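User: Here's a structure from my thesis project, written as structure tokens. My advisor, Dr. K., wants to see whether a designed sequence matches the one we expressed. Can you design one independently, without my sequence as a hint?
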């Protein structure tokens, strides 16, 4: 087989798998769309807490999101992706980076200089491709269903900040990545693995302290019953709680959440203001809108949600995920070290014979060559994540929060217009958490065992 045939076969194999994966996503989405169209009555398990009007709103919201997701998959996952591959988009960006490097005062013969400019241009194009979908998703889809809280000015500033932060992180990492491959010798993948592993841990630690406040306003949780109860819960399970914050997520969206951060030593718990009843404010507060009043969880329900989150820490889920990620990184870098000199990979994406930019080689191998492996691993991680969620729920049950956690899950589902009915195949492939009905059933079973 000639070199030409080899790189063409490589290109068509990549496109074929990309299409196959997208078609699977479309098939699963169509299964869920059928559920939205056919399921029009509240499940009997929820009839005491969800009225027909709320259920219909959730159904229409889910239907709109599914149609939007289907459209985006077809446009981005099939049309744009195939055209970019077939016409050698990455090669064109690399060529343009080489041509422009001198204009920016960089060395066109330095792969590090050209590689950094390549990363910047690729990110700019990525933003331009994504921004129409973000605008529609935020100001049409979310706005239509009452979840968008962003003004146009807030949205623009948010996008600019996100882009700047991304470049501050991406460009130095790209430069170091290329440098390590250039000087690392036969076992450069070990140095890459160590570098990215350490960088990942550093980012996990600095993100909540230095990066997250760039985008959202954090305030300490006010002294009171909830704060005292959270500290009592933390002491009860020996959770090393340091600080308690409330993030004003309501300026961005009406959706709710809670999480904790910190790898070593004391940790901080962050509550979205939308998780708290009336955003944690008195009911007569002048800043509360009518749509905000009555939404959110009572103190005991917030404690139940935190008991679930602490369960992830207590059961070692965070550490296990970090270890799995590190193993995956090692395998990816090992495969990259074995394949990055294979010329047809570069020619398949439009580069001239003999030209092998390190960044493009890495992207092609991770995004395309390893695509079948990535798909299987992603599904395996989804299965494991669902198992972890059940375990964290069981931990909360052991602490006596079975009833309150169930109430919190229902309230969050209702407040967020989450549709409670899913096609089993769609859910198994896409959802990292069990569905509401699955979790309620397990909570009920675990609660009876505890009694």
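Assistant: Designed independently from the structure alone:
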């Amino acid at each position: 087989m000639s070199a030409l045939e080899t790189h063409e076969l490589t290109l068509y194999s990549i496109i074929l798998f990309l299409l196959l994966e997208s078609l699977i996503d479309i098939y699963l989405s169509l299964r869920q769309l059928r559920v939205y169209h056919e399921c029009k009555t509240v499940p009997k398990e929820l009839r005491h807490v969800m009225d027909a009007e709320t259920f219909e709103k959730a159904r229409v919201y889910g239907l709109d999101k599914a149609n939007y997701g289907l459209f985006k998959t077809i446009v981005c996952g099939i049309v744009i992706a195939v055209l970019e591959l077939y016409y050698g988009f990455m090669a064109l960006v690399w060529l343009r980076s080489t041509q422009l490097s001198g204009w920016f005062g960089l060395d066109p013969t330095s792969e590090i200089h050209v590689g950094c400019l390549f990363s910047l241009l690729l990110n700019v194009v990525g933003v331009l491709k994504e921004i129409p979908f973000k605008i529609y998703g935020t100001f049409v889809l979310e706005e239509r269903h009452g979840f968008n809280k962003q003004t146009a000015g807030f949205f623009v500033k948010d996008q600019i900040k996100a882009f700047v932060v991304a470049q501050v992180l991406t460009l130095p990492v790209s430069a170091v990545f290329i440098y390590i491959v250039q000087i690392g010798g036969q076992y450069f993948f070990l140095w890459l693995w160590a570098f990215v592993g350490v960088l990942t841990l550093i980012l996990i630690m600095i993100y909540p302290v230095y990066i997250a406040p760039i985008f959202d306003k954090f305030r300490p949780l006010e002294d009171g019953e909830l704060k005292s109860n959270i500290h009592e819960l933390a002491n009860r399970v020996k959770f090393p709680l340091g600080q308690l914050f409330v993030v004003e997520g309501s300026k961005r969206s009406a959706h709710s959440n809670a999480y904790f951060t910190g790898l070593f030593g004391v940790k901080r718990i962050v509550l979205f203001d939308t998780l708290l009843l009336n955003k944690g404010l008195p009911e007569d507060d002048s800043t509360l809108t009518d749509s905000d009043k009555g939404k959110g969880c009572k103190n005991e329900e917030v404690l139940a949600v935190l008991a679930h989150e602490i369960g992830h820490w207590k059961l070692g889920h965070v550490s296990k995920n970090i270890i799995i990620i590190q193993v995956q990184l090692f395998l990816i870098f090992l495969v990259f070290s074995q394949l990055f000199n294979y010329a047809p990979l570069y020619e398949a994406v439009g580069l001239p014979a003999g030209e092998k930019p390190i960044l493009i080689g890495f992207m092609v191998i991770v995004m395309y060559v390893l695509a079948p492996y990535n798909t299987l691993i992603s599904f395996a991680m989804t299965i494991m994540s669902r198992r972890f969620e059940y375990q964290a729920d069981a931990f909360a049950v052991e602490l006596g929060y079975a009833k309150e956690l169930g109430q919190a899950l229902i309230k969050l589902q209702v407040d967020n217009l989450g549709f409670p009915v899913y096609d089993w195949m769609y859910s198994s492939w896409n959802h990292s958490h069990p569905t509401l009905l699955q979790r309620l059933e397990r909570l009920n079973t675990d609660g009876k065992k505890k009694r």
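When you compare it with your expressed construct, this may help: The chain has a mean pLDDT of 90.
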